[in-house]
Amino acid sequence: MTIERRTIKGLWRLIPEPAGDERGFFVETFRQSLIASEMGRPYVFAQSNHSRSVARTLRGFRTEPWDKAIYVTRGTALVVVVDPRPDSPTYREHETFLIGDAPGDRHRIVVSRGLANAFYCLTDVDYVNDVSEEYRPTGRRGFHWSAPGLGIDWPDTAPILSDADANLPSFDAFVEGRR
């Protein structure tokens, strides 16, 4: 397994080396020592979460005060990570990742606390995220997925949303609320 540091500080892609044959495949999805060496601090799972979403579902954008390692166990998702930190050199920038079955590479995305992420389900998806702190409802914030000024090219203009995600504030209102 290797780790790829991305342009946005605090964002990495884990690149495993799957072993497969006619029976299926085996893949290492996480290595704590590799992440800790890149982050410069320990990364310990405090909670693991599994969600199942139907095709065309969009979840996010959310920021949390914990680190998150994202993995799609079934299906294909487009994961988008945005830097909402005004003091960051990559403020307002985003990176996209296609992960899961379609690319077939079984990559995992590691998102540091404070970055925002969302995902869109191109197929039905099982999505696992392992987080560094236990869930606290007061720790989650977010902004609307459409975020016009960020230039994100979503594959769907009318995705399936939860009421909570549909009613998130604009990116600018979100940033202003953090100051």
Describe the structure.
By secondary structure, the protein is mainly beta. The protein has one domain: Jelly Rolls. It contains three helices and 13 strands, in the order ββββαβββββββββαα. It has helices spanning 32-39, 163-166, 171-178, and strands spanning 2-5, 11-15, 19-21, 24-26, 47-53, 58-63, 68-74, 76-82, 94-100, 108-111, 116-121, 125-131, 141-142. The protein has a six-stranded antiparallel beta sheet, covered by helices on one side. Strand 3 and strand 4 form a beta hairpin. The longest helix is centred in the first third of the chain and has 8 residues, at 32-39. The N and C termini lie far apart (39 Å).
List the helices and strands and how they pair.
Blueprint: E1 2-5, E2 11-15, E3 19-21, E4 24-26, H1 32-39, E5 47-53, E6 58-63, E7 68-74, E8 76-82, E9 94-100, E10 108-111, E11 116-121, E12 125-131, E13 141-142, H2 163-166, H3 171-178
Antiparallel strand pairs: 1-2, 2-10, 3-4, 5-12, 6-11, 6-13, 7-10, 7-12, 8-9, 8-11
Overall mean confidence score, pLDDT? 94
The CATH class is Mainly Beta
Find the count of extended strands (DSSP E, 2+ residues): 13
Task: Report the helical percentage.
Answer: 10-25%
**Fourth CATH level, the homologous superfamily:** Jelly Rolls
Strand order of the largest sheet: 1-2-10-7-12-5
Provide a count of the helices.
3
CATH architecture: Sandwich
Helix-strand topology string? EEEEHEEEEEEEEEHH
The end-to-end span amounts to 39 Å
Structural class: mainly beta
State the CATH topology.
Answer: Jelly Rolls
Shape designation = globular
Question: Could you tell me the strand content as a percent range?
Answer: 35-45%
Which radius of gyration do the C-alpha atoms yield? 16 Å
- How many individual domains? 1
